[in-house]
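// run 5 | inverse folding | seed 20
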């Protein structure tokens, strides 16, 4: 069984007006020059921590299907693939449904609205943002793509699986307490 979390993020190539200084904490200028955007599709193998990534200029159903095809190629064919996703309409189009009908080993699981924290690939995106993208200056989309690709390759050389530090019962108990508190 292979379980992947999957999602996509639009990432902007920014060329800050001044370099980030090597101070703690890192401070970046508030002003920047936007230089285009990329969509990063990513699937995280939750058992190993390895990531499959795919950079595109758009986030259409066709782009998502291309990404699913990449997962299909990279995950051994004897394994089922469970993919956790957000509720983006791109993931629910007739074209995606037709692709899934031809690739029965794929099972899509949609996270509830505003529950993206449940999707472990979100933590991987956070690592990318804090460890790479915060300090990078990207004069153009091509440079941004090269930076992201290099970071993913480096990540996969020594992947780190993300683990929950609380049991499901502990999480549900805390959530029930929160719901009780906000509903009073």
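// decoded
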């Amino acid at each position: 069984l292979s379980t992947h979390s999957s999602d996509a993020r639009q990432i902007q190539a920014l060329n800050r007006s001044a370099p980030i200084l090597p101070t703690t904490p890192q401070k970046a200028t508030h002003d920047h020059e936007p230089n285009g955007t990329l969509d990063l599709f990513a699937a995280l193998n939750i058992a190993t921590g390895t990531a499959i990534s795919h950079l595109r200029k758009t986030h259409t159903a066709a782009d998502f299907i291309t990404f699913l095809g990449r997962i299909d190629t990279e995950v051994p064919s004897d394994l089922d693939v469970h993919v956790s996703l957000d509720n983006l309409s791109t993931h629910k189009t007739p074209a995606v449904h037709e692709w899934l009908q031809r690739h029965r080993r794929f099972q899509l699981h949609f996270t509830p609205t505003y529950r993206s924290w449940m999707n472990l690939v979100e933590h991987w995106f956070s690592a990318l943002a804090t460890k790479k993208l915060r300090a990078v200056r990207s004069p153009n989309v091509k440079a941004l793509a090269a930076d992201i690709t290099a970071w993913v390759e480096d990540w996969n050389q020594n992947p780190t699986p993300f683990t929950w530090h609380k049991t499901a019962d502990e999480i549900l108990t805390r959530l029930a307490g929160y719901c009780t508190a906000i509903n009073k």
